[in-house]
Write a structure and sequence with these properties.
Radius of gyration: 19 Å
CATH superfamily of the largest domain: Translation initiation factor eif-2b, domain 2
CATH topology of the largest domain: Rossmann fold
Order of helices and strands: EEEEEHHHHHEHEHEHEEEHEEHEEEEE
Distance between the termini: 31 Å
Helix content: 25-40%
Bound molecules: 5-S-methyl-1-O-phosphono-5-thio-D-ribulose
């Protein structure tokens, strides 16, 4: 992805390995500042996933792969490391997929840095394919909508939901994107809008509650990412996705989910089995150090919701665009 650092447009990834350390953009600081942090301890890397220094399913996966790499380089107990890293966040399938991938590669004797770098690059390659397939759906003059951040920040580079937009922009297509702000952590406003700005893609931030209003005024297609997709095509994504899918169905607007196969979990038959992360009340009640909710009111903060397959038009994957009833094809 492009980022302007010290006045210079630079190519940067969300997470990478260099000089014995794992480096990442601290996504909590965007868009105000681009802060790069590094870690050389796998538990600190797991904590960076938990506290959302880095976030978004494929980036969480790549970061987990680098955490396993670091554990191997330091001679740690890899069974314990795998369990510690998997405990960081419960919902994104990529976290578990990446740790299992690294466990298999390391037990086959593969070099830890080579294996984790290959994992991160594999995600970028998959997202590039997602971008190519998804761009075919975007036509000149379209109005698109997305939620949360399923961009390069969330996927090492390129993005899932934003990859088709990146490719369509390069193809010279003119389109407009509504990015919903994504309460309470504001990934839509702070991260998606930042990426769309860097790419020069025409967009506006809207309050989450304005999605139905703008859909009623004319949205041609919605594209979101996913954290976990089950065998029947139900999927978990950022809280608020389900609302959009219901309204889209009501209004006849196509609703696409862009995700690599690493996000599919065929061990779960339906979305009812997905563990939904519950985050702190403070994310809802506080702005910085200031409490904006009445003292005495409690808050609930589910990070994700589950959208049933019947509301999905198609899944944009690295192997093509699949209807929900076609996803068993990618089970292998
Ligand atoms: O809590 P987050 O910011 O990790 O949630 C991210 C999302 O919900 C994304 O839409 C999803 O992970 C797909 S990322 C390509």
């Amino acid at each position: 992805m492009k980022a302007t650092i010290d006045g210079k447009v630079t190519d940067i990834k969300a997470v990478w390995f260099d000089d014995g350390k794992v480096w990442m953009i601290d996504q909590r600081e965007l868009p105000a500042r681009i802060v790069i942090v590094w870690f050389d301890d796998y538990l600190e890397i797991a904590e960076a996933i938990r506290n959302m220094t880095t976030r978004g399913a494929p980036s969480i996966g790549a970061t987990a792969a680098y955490a396993m790499c670091m554990a191997a380089l330091k001679g740690c107990d890899l069974v314990k490391a795998a369990a510690d890293i998997k405990a960081a966040r419960p919902t994104a399938n990529d976290l578990f997929y990446a740790v299992d991938y690294m466990t298999a590669e390391l037990s086959a004797g593969r070099d830890p840095v080579e294996a984790s770098d290959a994992y991160a690059q594999m995600m970028v390659d998959k997202c590039t394919k997602i971008g190519e397939y998804g761009a075919e759906l975007i036509e000149d003059g379209m109005k698109l909508m997305t939620h949360c951040n399923a961009g390069a920040l969330a996927t090492v580079d390129m993005g899932t939901a934003l990859a088709p937009m990146r490719v369509a922009q390069k193809q010279g297509k003119k389109f407009f994107v509504y990015a919903s702000e994504t309460r309470p952590r504001l990934q839509g406003m702070q991260l998606t809008a930042w990426e769309l700005n860097q790419e020069g893609i025409d967009h506006a931030i809207i309050p989450d509650g304005a999605s139905a209003y703008y859909m009623s005024k004319g949205v041609d297609m919605i594209i979101t990412g996913a954290d976990r997709i089950t065998a029947n095509g139900d999927f978990a994504n950022k809280i608020g996705t389900f609302d959009k899918a219901i309204v889209a169905k009501h209004m006849g607007i196509p609703f696409y989910v862009a995700a690599p196969i690493s996000t599919f979990d065929f061990s779960m038959e339906s979305g009812e089995e997905i563990v939904i992360e519950q985050r702190s009340e403070e994310e809802v009640t506080m702005v910085g150090d200031i409490r904006i909710a009445p003292v005495g009111s409690k808050a609930l903060n589910p990070a994700f919701d589950v959208t049933p397959a019947e509301l999905v038009t198609g899944f944009i994957t690295e192997v093509g665009i699949l209807r929900p009833d076609e996803i068993s094809k990618v089970r292998q």
